[in-house]
Design goal:
The chain has a single domain (4-300), classed as Alpha-Beta Barrel (TIM Barrel). 34% of the residues lie in helices and 20% in strands. The chain has helices at 30-37, 80-92, 106-119, 136-139, 143-153, 170-182, 221-231, 248-257, 266-271, 275-287; strands at 8-10, 13-15, 19-21, 43-45, 62-65, 68-71, 97-101, 123-127, 160-164, 187-190, 194-197, 199-200, 205-206, 212-216, 239-242, 261-264. The strands form four sheets. The chain has an eight-stranded parallel beta barrel, surrounded by seven helices. Strands 5-6-14-11 form a four-stranded antiparallel β-sheet, with no helix packed on it.
C-alpha cells in the first residue's frame, strides 16, 4: 500500500499519489487504462481524442535517439464515440481518469468536453500543444486563443487542465499560462514534447514519415524543470510537470521546482509499469514523514 502522505490535490481533484499516466498509446483502451491504474498510478490519461477517428501520419512514427524518443504520430485516435466507452471501462475499475482532447476550434473542444464529462472522466486535459499537428502548433502559443477555448470549455462542471507547449519564449508562455488560469483552468501541464528530427545518413533522408516530430525523454527534462520553476512563480493554480521522468529523483526535482504532480510517458517504455510504484516509494523515502505539500516548490526558498 502507498503512504497516505502521497495524496495531492490538483484544484478540486484529489489524487492518491502524484504520478499520472501521460496521454499516449496506453490510454487507448479501457483495459490498458485499468492496467496502469492497478500499477499504482495516481491517475490515468486517455490518448488525445478528436471529433472523428484519425489515422495519423504514415510511418515510421517513432525513432529512438540518444536523448529520448522522437514521435510523429499525427494524433491517431478512434474518435470521441469510441473513447467514451473506454473511459467507462476504466471508471468501473475505480480509476481516476483524465480525458485528453484536441480540436481545431472552440466549438469542437466544447463538444468533446461535454462527451468526456458524460462518460464520467474526473478531469479534462486540453491538448493545445502538439508540436507536429498543424492546428495545435499555434493554439497553445496564442494567449487569446487559449483564453477563448479554456473559457468556453470551463463552463462544464468537470475540472479543466491545460497542456502547454515548451517551445516558445518564456514571456509568451507566461502569458498563455495566465490566460488559461484566469479563464478557469484548474491545473496546467508543462510541457508537451519539443520539435526535433533524425536523419538516416545512409538514405540521406529524415527517418520519420512526417520528417519532424516531438522529442520526449531525458533530453528535455532540464528544459521542463526550468519551465515549471519559472511558471509556478507566475500562477496560483497547480502545475503538473512532464518530460524526462524515469525515476523518483526526476519526479522529486519537478516537485521541488514547483510541480504538484508529474506525468509519465516515455519512461514507461524504458522502465515498465513498475515505474509508478518506484517513483512513489522514492518520494515516500524523501518525504521522511512530511506531507507532499511541504516540499512543493521548495527549491524557491532561500
Amino acid at each position: 500500500m502507498l503512504k497516505e502522505n502521497l495524496k495531492v490535490k490538483l484544484g478540486s481533484l484529489k489524487l492518491r499519489n502524484p504520478t499520472i499516466l501521460a496521454a499516449g498509446i496506453l490510454g487507448l483502451t479501457g483495459g490498458s487504462l485499468r492496467r496502469v491504474w492497478r500499477s499504482e498510478a495516481g491517475a490515468v490519461t486517455t490518448k488525445s481524442v478528436g471529433i472523428k477517428p484519425r489515422e495519423g501520419y504514415p510511418g515510421p512514427r517513432i525513432v529512438e535517439t540518444s536523448g529520448g524518443l522522437l514521435n510523429a504520430m499525427g494524433l491517431p485516435n478512434p474518435g470521441i464515440k469510441n473513447i467514451v466507452d473506454e473511459i467507462k471501462i476504466a471508471k468501473k475499475a475505480g480509476a481516476t481518469v483524465i480525458g485528453s482532447i484536441f480540436g481545431n476550434k472552440k466549438e469542437e473542444f466544447t463538444h468533446l468536453a461535454q462527451k468526456i464529462e458524460k462518460a464520467g472522466a474526473d478531469a479534462i486535459e486540453l491538448n493545445l500543444s502538439c508540436p507536429h499537428a498543424e492546428t495545435l502548433t499555434t493554439i497553445g502559443h496564442d494567449p487569446e486563443l487559449t483564453r477563448e477555448i479554456t473559457e468556453v470549455v470551463e463552463k462544464i462542471e468537470t475540472p479543466i487542465w491545460v497542456k502547454l507547449p515548451g517551445n516558445t519564449h518564456l514571456s509568451n508562455l507566461t502569458q498563455v499560462a495566465k490566460a488559461a488560469e484566469v479563464s478557469g483552468a484548474e491545473s496546467l501541464v508543462l510541457s508537451n514534447t519539443f520539435p526535433g528530427m533524425a536523419i538516416d545518413i545512409k538514405t540521406r533522408r529524415p527517418i520519420l514519415g512526417h520528417e519532424t516530430g516531438g522529442l520526449s525523454g531525458p533530453a528535455i527534462k532540464p528544459i521542463g524543470l526550468r519551465l515549471v520553476y519559472e511558471i509556478s512563480q507566475s500562477v496560483e493554480i497547480p502545475i503538473i510537470g512532464a518530460g524526462g521522468i524515469r525515476k523518483s529523483e526526476d519526479a522529486i526535482e519537478y516537485i521541488l521546482a514547483g510541480a504538484s504532480a508529474v506525468e509519465v510517458g516515455t519512461g514507461i517504455m524504458q522502465e515498465g509499469l513498475g515505474i509508478f510504484q518506484d517513483i512513489c516509494r522514492g518520494i515516500t523515502s524523501f518525504l521522511e514523514g512530511r506531507e507532499m505539500k511541504e516540499i512543493i516548490g521548495l527549491a524557491h526558498q532561500t
